[in-house]
Amino acid sequence: MESPDAAWSIGVCNPSGLLGKGTLLAGLQSDVIAVSETHLTDVSKSMLSTSLRATSPYRFLVTGATLSPRSVASHAGSYSGVAVVSKCPSRPLGSCWPLDMYETGRVQVVGSFVNHMWVTGGLLYGYPQGKNHPNALERTTAMLQHLVDHMVHVAVGPRWLGGDWNYLESQLSVTNLLRARG
User: Fold this and answer.
1) What is the mean pLDDT of residues 101-109?
2) Most buried of 11, 30, 34, 171, CB within 10 angstroms?
3) Entry pTM
4) Coil, helix or strand for 150?
């Protein structure tokens, strides 16, 4: 029988930008929250971290690469970004990122120390289809393939993959590998 201390929870959200939404996150009841479409720049990441520590049990914020501001008058970044917000110690984990993949701000690998064990998470914000994102499906598939490879061949212990992949499971061939792995 599993001890009650081994239980933990993960939430997933896509808030269309995190700037000014610390109270939204504070109201969620998960140990770890995987967030897509954060729009976080260095400045807005710092502002969010301060807000979370002041108003919520969420003390840890790990983002993917931070984004450039949309304009000189804005703290909001481009329409991208991923983050993990957690109540427990969390940190970015190393990965052999393919050239420029991490810099998109759309992927991250995170370790969280939940109830006396490390849990590895992979977070992806896929490219949406449209004229602004050429080869969106192929680029999203490549990012997801990298995360799956990391989870299958590098990570040990409990693992999760989350985010807004922007495609149906059936459109992403790598999901067959996930199914085969249980």
Assistant:
1) 95
2) 34
3) 0.88
4) helix
